[in-house]
Write a structure and sequence with these properties.
By secondary structure, this protein is of the alpha+beta class. It contains one helix and ten strands. A hairpin with a 4-residue loop joins strand 2 and strand 3. This is Cytochrome bc1 complex Rieske iron-sulfur subunit.
Amino acid sequence: MSGTAPSRISRRTALRGAAVAGTAGLGLTACSTGSGGGAAAAPTAPVDLGKADEVPAGGAKLYKDEHVVVSRTEDGAYKAFSTICTHAGCPIGMLKGTELTCNCHGSKFDATTGKVLHAPATTPLEELAVKVEGGKIVAGPQK
């Protein structure tokens, strides 16, 4: 027999280590770019978003599946922006009034201008070309 006793890990130490490892995993998940392993992306071609009158005057509408937000001024002009956060590439999934909030890290953007309202993002959202054709909104990359 050697002169050293085998080391033992207490149950409390093992549970504490498991909790730390689980928390670290959650942090990594929050920093990932989208679900399903693929990164979310803004439209690379024009997309039909539906009826133009669904966007209220003075308000905005979030099109989660297309990663686009469209706003409309009181006088009827439309603006569109990508809803891929400029901080870490996460898809933005929350719109309240005209304020977009990124679920990953809490960056906030103005849906009418694309400007950053709250860090950690520092770069505005990408503006997209938008037009109304036959009563429908079409948005896509700038030409």
